[in-house]
Amino acid sequence: MKYINVWAIIGLTALLNTGCEKILEENPQSQIVPSYFNSPAGVLGGIAGVYNDIRGQWGTEGFTVEMQAGTDDFLQGASSGGGPAYTYNGLNGSNFGSAWGVAFQDINTLNGVLQYGATIDLPEATRKQYLAQAKFLRGFWYFYLVQTWGDVPLNTTFITVPSQAASRQPAAQVYEQIIKDLTEAAADLPNTPTAPFLGKAATKPVAQLLLAKAYLTRGWLNNTAADFTQAATICSDIIANKSTYGLDLWADYGDAFVPANDYGKETMFVSDHVLDPKFGYYTVGGAAGGGAAQNLTPWFTNWNYPNNSGVNSFVNASGTLVNSGTSGMIRDSQYGRPYVRMRPNTDRLKTGPNAGKSYFLDQAFTKRDVDTRFANSFTTVYIANTAVTNSATAANNKRGISYTTVVGADTAVWLPDFEVAGAPQFVGTRPFKGIVVPPSLWNNGIFPALKKFMDPSRGANFNDPSTRPVVLYRFSDVYLTGAEAYLKAGDANKAADLLNVVRQRAAYKKTNTAAQNTAAAASMLITAADVTVDFILDERSRELFGEWQRWHDLVRTRSLVRRVQAWNPEAAAYIKDYHMLRPIPQTQIDRVVDGPKFTQNPGY
């Protein structure tokens, strides 16, 4: 498996009597001193440590919840454990902010790299690449921070002496620094991954995409036409130079999520996750506890298929699916671990302007007969992986027949995206060996599972974390970001052109004839009149569902409260305007005891 070669550099820091990761986690102000960065190994160790800390957020459970819960895309799963992040009810600084401390710790490390690494003995081109990586990563973290909390502390010098004083600087100043860092990083980063930053570390187009997103977000904050134009221009430049950057869309949307393509042409930037005990997070074969740097992404939206797929399940008098009979499935690598933390927002609304509609099926994933993104994103068919003998006289077996399911051939669970008469034990009048669960029977315990990130490669150790990288940015995002920027800049025609590239790709099927693919692509075309902010947000749901962007997408477009109230039945009653910013972690507020108090965001 490919991965960023800077992980190997972590070992070099043993020359300094401790590992880079340990330095970054334990009192960094007192353990990292300026002399640490006076060698190539120290500079690389600092950068590697920051990449490692990104790995400890993207792909982990708490951070995934923070990036996606409480939106129009997701509701709670049966095993979410509740939580204010989903509903906003009681959300405060004691239950949010897993990456706050990590981000500032890493920013301080990067400040040291930039402050002292400029004089290390390296060829000029190599030194520039190292420092460009540091600028990108500092811009990356500050962009996350300012989107999430607004005004935050802004530090650009290396801190070696602990302080109990801190203050927040205006978001405008933070954006100025982000844009400066990313602009300079884009100028000096290579066009394609270059040693020692291999795999899919930061490159010129990655820095450009993040820069475009920063301009776009600042433009929304200030309604600044120049920022929208700048973002649009940057995205167009990336697309125009895609061959130089080794980037492109796969012809088939589903190919973007084939494990063999994780480091392919559509992938721009990843957080690597390798199944290697030397990192100390787990022992191979010892299962995953969900701690630091464990990629459990494949399973957060996975329902409990081994336990809730009883072959004689039935609908009770209340119209609810009741699990009954021997399970038609056992846990395996292909279908993954049943975490049931979050689920697609499939509920049909009972009141309001969207009464009777489901965001999932009626707003986001429409045109499912042509648009392949639903079929390529969600598992709706589970093939039996265990033989089950079901007697005609078994309790709640209404089929009137006895049978045994055939492993690898019979369907154990079918979750069609339309209503099926006779469900769950019949298709019409025909007995069905497994169970049929149409949308009216979906609930917080059974629903289509997100399959983009599934990792069947773990073999017998299917309880171990995933070894797949977490993909933070894909090339299709350049088109979507550019479309939004062009719309806000007043050019809806160009916005439609960019959206049509993504939409027409979504219509492609390998099983179609050329004529069928041409007709399908034509049916997906939109015009400038179709392009609105809400249309783009729906398109981002279709294209990027579950890819750690939704909360920031809704906040950026000032759409969070409106769309949650319109579509999310769990959070609609609780969300307020002040929820556009997350609560400052209480630990941060408590630790500032010198000088003015560290302020909390309004409303919390």
TrEMBL record:
Residue ranges constituting the RagB/SusD domain according to the UniProt record = 448-604
Arranged from A to Z, the UniProt key words for this protein are: Cell outer membrane, Membrane, Signal
* Domain of life (superkingdom): Bacteria
Q: Which Pfam families match?
A: SusD-like_3, SusD_RagB
Identify the residues that the record assigns to the SusD-like N-terminal domain, covering every copy: 87-216
GO terms for cellular component: cell outer membrane
Q: Where is it localised?
A: Cell outer membrane
Major localization listed first in the record, in broad terms: membrane
Q: Which family does it belong to?
A: Belongs to the SusD family.
**Entry protein name:** RagB/SusD domain protein
